[in-house]
Automatic annotation (TrEMBL):
It comes from Paenibacillus woosongensis. This is Carrier domain-containing protein. Transmembrane segments: none annotated. The lineage of its organism: Bacteria, Bacillati, Bacillota, Bacilli, Bacillales. Pfam families: PP-binding. Residues 1-76 form the Carrier domain. Gene3D superfamilies: ACP-like (1.10.1200.10). InterPro entries: ACP-like_sf (IPR036736), PP-bd_ACP (IPR009081).
Length: 78
């Protein structure tokens, strides 16, 4: 399972992006807000079968693709 690809696909879906997402840029600058972040988290948890810990549900943990992947790795270990 290519986690980076899954994350990118889900983010693009939530952002309803017509253009390709730049994975190196801040996602908030590309339109990710708190509501869309929650939508993304729900879809992510369903897709890969994890539950993100409440302590990790901070907007700052979801502003970059690499941070999201690190968070997923952390929650997969639990």
């Amino acid at each position: 399972m290519d986690m980076r690809r899954i994350v990118l696909e889900l983010i693009e879906k939530v952002l309803e992006s017509q253009n390709s997402l730049n994975p190196d840029e801040n996602l908030v600058d590309q339109g990710l807000d708190s509501i869309k972040t929650i939508q993304f988290i729900v879809q992510l948890e369903e897709k890969i079968g994890i539950t993100i810990a409440d302590d990790d549900l901070l907007m700052e943990n979801f502003d970059r693709i690499e941070k999201i992947i690190s968070l997923i790795d952390k929650n997969l270990v639990k």
